[in-house]
Amino acid sequence: MKKTTILLGLLVGTALFADVKKGEEVYKANCAICHTIDGRGGMGPDFNMVSYKRTKEEIASYAKDPYSLSEKFGYSSNAMPTLPLEDEEFKDVADYVSSLVKFKEWMIKRKDSKKELVKVEDNSTKIDS
């Protein structure tokens, strides 16, 4: 029973990893021309920021139909084309974008650790924790 559980875990883990790898390939072939993953900027938002702000499902939905969702996502206009991808490819690229968790984890830690400066009675400032 223990061997079966371990084997099943490895298979599921491998399948999840494969989706991220396939998603990286989809990204390189279809998205990298406009979206960076290293903060350099581009025509579209950096995918590290997208992974921080959006769920995997939102990423896949927007990639599949950017025109109908641009206002809902807070964009005043949309320059992203509708991509001729299969449903699985949209899911794979969403898996890849969501896998950029190192940046996401860093942003969350940074947000949580922000301290607010507060004026004290003698007009000096202190860090409010």
Q: Mind explaining what this structure looks like?
A:
The structure is a single chain. The chain has 129 residues and is mainly α. Helices cover 58% and strands 6% of the residues. The protein has helices spanning 2-31, 47-53, 56-64, 66-69, 87-98, 101-113, and strands at 116-119, 125-128. A two-stranded antiparallel sheet has the order 1-2. α1 packs across α5, α2 (47-53) packs across α6 and α3 (56-64) packs across α5. The longest helix has 30 residues, at 2-31. It is globular, with a radius of gyration of 20 Å. The model is unreliable at 7-17 (pLDDT under 50).
Cα-atom radius of gyration: 20 Å
Task: Quickly name the level 1 CATH class.
Answer: Mainly Alpha
Main beta sheet strand tally, sense and closure = 2 strands, antiparallel
- Mean pLDDT figure: 77
Number of domains: 1
- What is the CATH-assigned architecture? Orthogonal Bundle
Helices and strands, in order, run as HHHHHHEE
Please tell me what the overall shape is.
Answer: globular
Point out poorly predicted stretches: 7-17
Structural class based on helices, strands and sheet pairing: mainly alpha
The strand count comes to: 2
- Helix count equals 6
Strand order of the largest sheet: 1-2
CATH superfamily: Cytochrome c-like domain
Strand content: 5-15%
Question: Any idea of the CATH topology?
Answer: Cytochrome Bc1 Complex, Chain D, domain 2
